[in-house]
Design the sequence.
């Protein structure tokens, strides 16, 4: 992919102060802030209307630092505690962006409410992946998982939009889009952005798009904000960055997330980071009681604390021999995983562990030894291998036993790509030397997520930072802060 | 590379119960244990004598769990504490191997002493990379670095062999090799192993080597133990796994670490893990006072806690834009880095931060802002961005100031490859399905290190686990435990 030189442009079809590519949550938030900073704003969107993957999402924002929703549920969070929690799992690679995010989080939550995004003052205490109901607060990450619970006060940060059903992201998007419409953010729909336009000085100053088969050239007086989402539907990029992804895995979101915005920005000099990062999920919970089971690999060995966030568990399953994994439960905790789309198959019930071990073709004695050790420690209320939380420890000694096949290639794992454009704290796209690419900003899932991998991801880390840095991009492109 | 079928072998030149490839520390320990289990043992070594990279190393073993050296220095460690510390930084990927290692560590230390490896009951409290002197205990990792210091009681675990100079590894090797000679471990020197021999059932049963231009075929009745070291001298493998390694970087160790043992074992069905792991070092300390400076990237931003283990700091430098990094100090802490081989160049002294910022071509205002924030927090005794330990916090306000160029491509970074063969807790080489490759064991730097990357590595994590799993491999290949 290449950029287009302004020399080859004879006339523009339209112009604006700020042009935003993509009308998901990052684009909507960028549009609102750029508009409020006095800009004429045009969103170029390839779909027939605004929405993005955000509209289909479960509507969880990873927010904290002491929001009103947290306080109402009796949780004491603050920006430092949130920062320590995030950095401990994600590492310090993007410390400055994380710091910015944590420090601005309470104000950002209030801003979202002011735009009409509804959050209930209510709390869902159980293990869940998404909520069909409307509670405002849930555990959505690894806060209570060792070692993170020892580093920062564990508090829930999943802020769910108050909307029934599993696509509560619509409740956020509808509110934001209504404001965009009211305040005059313009849009060009059915317009597929194809290349950025660069002026004599190397500054990004426009975009070439295709609408109903015709080329459309848009001029951006102040800058372009890329907000086009991830690359989960780009087969070539997937093959390159995720060679171990089985054919059974399914991208989350919408068909349009083909990485085009990333590639356009790279052509203009933008750098990427963390392209091999992925969050996949085929959660064993709910119900939470399944977390009391153990997960073993083809060697009959445990490899992850079973109370981990589902994306963390999935990341470790991806790394096991042949990506195979089994969930083992006894009769006391037996239940079917509720998220049927994961297609975790019940292999069978067994009267003894020896039988199960043989049926799963595990090395002789391996599962028997693993279970004996686990049960012995569970009776003492501890898990010396993975420090699974005491709430989930019980000896698995109430036969018969059952096994589910939760292997990466035999279940349906849904994934989100986490890598993307490198941005600074002002959402400016950076080049490989770390210098801003003139005229180019980015936010949302086309940028590198704050969490580099599925081991440190938490639900809400797309909508939360996407909306936050979208707002920053809008202000920054307009030259206000 | 291929294996050789036993069908094509008409006669063997020599045979033994156990054949070990490589006579570094893993091979020596494997040889001793296999011999003591009653085996006839032959070591096939390409050099003219035993040594390996171990002989040239600084002689640090990462040991703990409550050794006599730790106790003598007043440190209270135990296997659980050591395990928590290691897993917190390395992740749970190899939990079982780490657990085995920690649980057996005190006994392993005693075994090393029984073989005549000398360790003083003395303690070096300062920041150091290696010791010219003979103290037995030093800080060699990230134990005191946040967040690890909050997860496990920080104690030093670098056990240094009591020998003057920077190559104290010789003090360990000489003792172990003397035992090998006394007890009848045989060796074939100047013998370059080229391919493993596999029998009709697929079991590894021998090795083909080349000695002075002639083929030599060795038969192993019980098994082969690969102990051939890392792949730091294999240009093709380096290019493939470390595309960002600059030409200036230098492999540590000896010229023979070309990954041949890894490739031979892979040809026989062995799996590898963590091949993109690297520990590089060009330490800014000693002297420790330099740790009170700040390290910034091309954006004028800090990106790592400066009190990190030198290999951790180097890992983060590798990831910065253009791999550039600068160490900034004020006149109160100014000193030259003592490890001259790192070639960190003093750029200049400056009367103001504004001048320095311009000379380093950092974005205008970036360094001024970074220093102001750092100094303000240092005065309060805190570092909210990276939680640098209070011992190393002081405002850098005593001008003039100086900058060293510690960029990855402008200094000399020395590295060790960390990836390699996948083994189980019995040191059996595993295939991609996690099943043991019949007849094949491995230990030392040709296996995947316990630490997957330079961020979690600590000095001593090659000699420590190499000697420990070498012993296990020797016993396991003989069928004893």
Sequence:
């Amino acid at each position: 992919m290449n950029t287009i030189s302004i020399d080859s442009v004879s006339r523009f079809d339209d112009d604006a102060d700020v042009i935003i590519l993509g009308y998901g949550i990052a684009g909507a938030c960028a549009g609102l802030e750029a508009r409020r900073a006095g800009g004429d704003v045009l969103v170029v969107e390839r779909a027939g209307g605004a929405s993005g993957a955000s509209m289909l999402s479960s509507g969880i924002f990873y927010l904290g630092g002491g929001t009103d929703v947290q306080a109402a549920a009796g949780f004491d969070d603050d920006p430092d505690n949130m920062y320590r929690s995030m950095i401990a799992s994600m590492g310090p690679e993007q410390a400055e962006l994380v710091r910015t995010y944590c420090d601005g989080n309470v104000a950002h939550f209030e801003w979202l409410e002011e735009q009409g995004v509804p959050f209930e003052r209510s709390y869902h205490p159980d293990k869940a992946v998404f909520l069909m109901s409307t509670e405002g607060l849930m555990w959505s990450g690894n806060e209570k998982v060792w070692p993170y619970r020892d580093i920062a006060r564990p508090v829930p940060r999943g802020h769910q939009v108050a909307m029934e059903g599993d696509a509560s992201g619509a409740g956020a998007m509808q509110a934001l889009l209504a404001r965009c419409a009211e305040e005059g953010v313009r849009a060009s729909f059915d317009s597929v952005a194809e290349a950025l336009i660069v002026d004599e000085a190397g500054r990004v100053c426009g975009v070439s798009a295709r609408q109903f088969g015709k080329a459309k050239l848009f001029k951006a007086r102040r800058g372009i904000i890329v907000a086009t989402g991830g690359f989960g539907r780009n087969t070539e990029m997937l093959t390159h960055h995720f060679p171990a992804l089985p054919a059974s895995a399914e991208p989350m979101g919408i068909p349009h997330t083909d990485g085009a915005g990333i590639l356009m920005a790279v052509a203009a000099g933008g750098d990427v980071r963390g392209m091999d990062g992925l969050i996949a999920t085929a959660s064993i919970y709910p119900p939470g009681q399944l977390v009391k089971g153990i997960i073993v690999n083809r060697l009959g060995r445990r490899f992850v604390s079973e109370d981990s966030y589902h994306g963390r568990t999935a990341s470790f399953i991806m790394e096991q021999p042949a990506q195979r994994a089994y969930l083992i439960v006894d009769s006391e905790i037996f239940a079917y995983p509720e998220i049927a789309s994961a297609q975790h198959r019940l292999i069978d019930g067994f009267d003894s562990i020896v039988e199960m071990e043989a049926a799963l073709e595990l090395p002789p004695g391996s599962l028997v030894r693993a279970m004996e050790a686990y049960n012995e420690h569970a009776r003492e209320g501890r898990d010396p291998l993975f420090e699974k939380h005491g709430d989930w420890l019980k000896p698995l000694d109430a036969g018969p036993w059952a096994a589910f096949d939760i292997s990466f290639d035999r279940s349906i794992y849904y994934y989100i790509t986490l890598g993307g454009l490198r941005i600074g704290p002002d959402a400016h796209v950076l080049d490989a030397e770390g210098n801003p690419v003139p005229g180019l900003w980015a936010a949302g899932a086309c940028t590198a997520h704050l969490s580099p991998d599925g081991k440190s991801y938490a639900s809400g880390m797309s909508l939360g930072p996407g909306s936050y840095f979208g707002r920053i991009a809008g202000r920054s492109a307009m030259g206000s802060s």
Notes: The interface with chain B takes residues 80, 83-84, 87-88, 91-93, 95-96, 99, 147, 150-151, 271, 297-299, 301-305, 316, 319-322, 363, 384-387, 424, 430-435, 455 of chain A (CB under 8 Å). The CA atoms of residues 445 and 462 of chain A lie 7 Å apart.
